[in-house]
Amino acid sequence: MSEFLVKDGVKNLQKPGEKLVTTHCCYCGMQCGMHIRVNEKSGKVVGVEPRYDWPVTLGKMCPKGVTAYQTVNHKERILKPLIKKNGQFVESSWEEAYDLIEKNFKQLQAEHGKDAVGVFGGVSMTNEKCYLVGKYARVGLGTRFLDYNGRFCMSSAAGGLMKTLGVDRGSSLPLPEFEHTDCLFMAGSNTAECHPTMIQWLWKAKDKGAKLIVADPRETPTARVADVHLDLKPGSDSALANGIMHLLIEEGYVDEEYVNERCNNYEELKAMVKKFTPELTESITGVAKDKIIKAARIYGKSPRSIVAFCRGIEQQNKGVDNVTLYTSMALLRGQIGKFASGVATITGQGNGQGGREHGQKADALPGYRKIDNPEHVKYVAGVWGIKPEEMPKAGVSAYEMFDEIQNENIRAMHIMCSNPAVSAPNLDHIWSGLKKLEFLVVSDFFLSETAEFADVILPTTTWAEDEGTTTNLEGRVIRVRKVTEPLGEAKTDWEIMRDIAKRMGKGKFFNYENPRQIFEELRIASKGGKADYHGITWERIDKEDGVFWPCPSEDHPGTPTMFKEKFGTEDGKANLAAVDWAEPGETPTTEYPHILTTGRVVFHYLSGTQTRRVDFLMEQCPLPYIEIHPELASQYNISNKDKVLITSPRSNMTVEARITKAIRKDTVFIPYHWGKELAANQLTNPALDPVSRMPEFKVAAVKLEKV
């Protein structure tokens, strides 16, 4: 049992026979600070208390965080390895499960080559585990087919920030500075529901006079309190951002000195946005030109301003373009690198930031090195103890891995901490691929929809049963502490990868006894990279309540504010984006006349594997639904709570109607946290961004029918 720590004077909350363990929530990128109640006699988790001195959330917790502890000892936890025999899962020993995995992996690789086995990772794991996924795939299995569920979450943000700023860190400034800004421009983020504990910083800023601008097709709880709500058509963000920049230039709000000294491509950008007059922008986005002008003037006149965005602008076939354009807005105002100013992409998954930095992406190596760069390969190969020529080449993106299954290039797969049977688009294609695999291993602590397709299920630990680090949405590296012993025979993901690698004859590369050893190797592997953790130690994290990367040495203070003096590009200058608007991958037609967009609700998280097992959360939102504007509903004689059949070119599903004026008349909305016949991603479009390979979850053409 790890050390019990209580930092903010809440020992009076301890009950007789209980201890409090200081750690962080397992859900979104806020990584809220909390104390877990542990029964001293049984060692079991029994409750939670907020941590009031955690500087990011100050004791705030959302419904998911308050109930997160309930999944640890849940009755549906998988306690022993499961092997599918005659169509049914049967409990087995670890030895039998490992024997079967070794036999199948070795046989398929002998017959079809190393790439016959693919690895699909996830970013709700610690940095140590995410780092090891990349090494496990490339060294333990020798395969190039590796990617992760962050491809469906943060990949467009990463691609856009790399193009403009040269470094992908979620926020260029610490979250507490949001309180001191004068204007917050939020695009495609329903912060109040998706990151509830962040909303306090918006309220504090507004209390001090800050203005809030929200671009969203829906009048979400966030948009409802905005000074300007830009209710744009899904898929038109590029036009809106260009329209705002047109006005910033025309009305003299550009920080010319900053742009001339610190940015490239200004003349190209000016030429591109010249045509995006308020009239043209209105015609494309559907937003009244008066609102566009008002938003541009508020933003342009604000001495301090922040542009923040989320999946709404990123999960599109031009998500990278959207990110580069909204980032360019902040650059035109000269805001990045200054106090209470800058740009932030609000991380969805718990370790969405750290999990994409250290090598479980198809084209990336630890420290944000690139696998197509010989010097990067040489360095990481040296850390790992392999020859550079032994490093597999780049693989393909998460969705495209299922194309490779259909093409019989991937014959087996190991899926960890992910549920693509719910989270991927065009689910018929995903389900078909999972069935087609000759051998599937799934590591999970619940029987997810993906695990149901498995030949072997390996029981893993929850976040409370292991320790390590994660990186929150600011780029602050923090510590997650072990709270209780693993339930049943569950093993940690790093132990499972280590054990399978040994079975594959690569044990000498995986001699780890604890997560700390993995982190020490990660520090070396990231040294000199864009995401440099070399100066971060567990002791520093504990002492300083987290350390911001890049942190190249132990005497370096870390980097709470990015880009004060230069950007991460080769010449140190930011690259302004001169990008035209283009249609989404799918537009309404006579047959499919309406637009579907998807998103979260406050009571559930991602594919719902955890939250759908918490009684309180399910009571609040037991089923998905479709939001429809009253005028659109009247066309089909649909009333509140009627059943509606919604059909896209890919599939159909039936859900209950919620009639609301808080959505555009041409758009419908469905939350995506459910599986099988209730999975919204049956309908969504797999059109991929050409850079990030992000699918277009946020725009799909659909038709409606009252059932």
TrEMBL record:
<protein>
    <submittedName>
        <fullName>Nitrite reductase</fullName>
    </submittedName>
</protein>
<keyword id="KW-0408">Iron</keyword>
<feature type="domain" description="4Fe-4S Mo/W bis-MGD-type">
    <location>
        <begin position="18"/>
        <end position="76"/>
    </location>
</feature>
<keyword id="KW-0479">Metal-binding</keyword>
<keyword id="KW-0411">Iron-sulfur</keyword>
<dbReference type="InterPro" id="IPR006657">
    <property type="entry name" value="MoPterin_dinucl-bd_dom"/>
</dbReference>
<dbReference type="GO" id="GO:0003954">
    <property type="term" value="F:NADH dehydrogenase activity"/>
</dbReference>
<dbReference type="GO" id="GO:0043546">
    <property type="term" value="F:molybdopterin cofactor binding"/>
</dbReference>
<dbReference type="InterPro" id="IPR027467">
    <property type="entry name" value="MopterinOxRdtase_cofactor_BS"/>
</dbReference>
<dbReference type="InterPro" id="IPR006963">
    <property type="entry name" value="Mopterin_OxRdtase_4Fe-4S_dom"/>
</dbReference>
<dbReference type="Pfam" id="PF01568">
    <property type="entry name" value="Molydop_binding"/>
</dbReference>
<dbReference type="GO" id="GO:0008863">
    <property type="term" value="F:formate dehydrogenase (NAD+) activity"/>
</dbReference>
<dbReference type="InterPro" id="IPR006656">
    <property type="entry name" value="Mopterin_OxRdtase"/>
</dbReference>
<dbReference type="InterPro" id="IPR006478">
    <property type="entry name" value="Formate_DH_asu"/>
</dbReference>
<dbReference type="Pfam" id="PF00384">
    <property type="entry name" value="Molybdopterin"/>
</dbReference>
<dbReference type="GO" id="GO:0022904">
    <property type="term" value="P:respiratory electron transport chain"/>
</dbReference>
<dbReference type="Pfam" id="PF04879">
    <property type="entry name" value="Molybdop_Fe4S4"/>
</dbReference>
<dbReference type="GO" id="GO:0015942">
    <property type="term" value="P:formate metabolic process"/>
</dbReference>
<dbReference type="InterPro" id="IPR050123">
    <property type="entry name" value="Prok_molybdopt-oxidoreductase"/>
</dbReference>
<dbReference type="GO" id="GO:0051539">
    <property type="term" value="F:4 iron, 4 sulfur cluster binding"/>
</dbReference>
<keyword id="KW-0004">4Fe-4S</keyword>
<dbReference type="GO" id="GO:0046872">
    <property type="term" value="F:metal ion binding"/>
</dbReference>
<dbReference type="GO" id="GO:0016020">
    <property type="term" value="C:membrane"/>
</dbReference>
<dbReference type="InterPro" id="IPR009010">
    <property type="entry name" value="Asp_de-COase-like_dom_sf"/>
</dbReference>
<dbReference type="InterPro" id="IPR006655">
    <property type="entry name" value="Mopterin_OxRdtase_prok_CS"/>
</dbReference>
